[in-house]
Amino acid sequence: QVQLVESGGGLVQAGGSLILSCAASGSIFSLNAMGWYRQAPGKQRELIATITSGGSTNYANSVKGRFTISRDNAKMTVYLRMNSLKPEDTAVYYCNANLQIIGWPRQNDYWGQGTQVTVSS
């Protein structure tokens, strides 16, 4: 089985910073692109940042210049550093990983359980 375990969420004042982590574990043959999504109350889940296994990154316009995604392949962990946080960044943040498990011929997407980020004004 595969698990994605997130950590680092919490309550922060506007203008503050947080770092989210997401560690993958289990019978993983290859770990491909990883990303962070978020879902605010009453809104659809949105993609905010992705990173390939080679380190290429993409960001949603709403977080570009404030958020930085990175990964440690040896630790099978992806990070999201969030600076200059705004109240509108308040949401549940989810980690996503595209990976192939040992003994299975195809790649699939897996999700973390989500971590709450609340930004107070």
Write structural notes for this entry:
This protein is mainly beta and 121 residues long. Helices cover 0% and strands 60% of the residues. It contains no helices and eleven strands. The protein has strands at 2-7, 10-13, 18-26, 28-39, 46-51, 57-59, 67-72, 77-82, 91-101, 108-111, 115-120. The strands form two sheets. Strands 2, 4, 5, 6, 9, 10 and 11 form a seven-stranded mixed β-sheet that branches. A four-stranded antiparallel β-sheet has the order 1-3-8-7, with no helix packed on it. The protein is elongated. It starts with a strand and ends with a strand. The model has no long low-confidence stretch (mean pLDDT 96).
Radius of gyration: 14 Å
| Strand segment tally | 11
Q: How many strands, which pairing sense, and closed or not: the largest β-sheet? A: 7 strands, mixed
Percent of residues in helices: under 10%
Mean pLDDT: 96
Topology overview:
Layout lengths: L1 E6 L2 E4 L4 E9 L1 E12 L6 E6 L5 E3 L7 E6 L4 E6 L8 E11 L6 E4 L3 E6 L1
Parallel strand pairs: 2-11
Antiparallel strand pairs: 1-3, 3-8, 4-5, 4-9, 5-6, 7-8, 9-10, 9-11
Quickly describe the structure:
Helices cover 0% and strands 60% of the residues. By secondary structure, the chain is mostly beta strands.
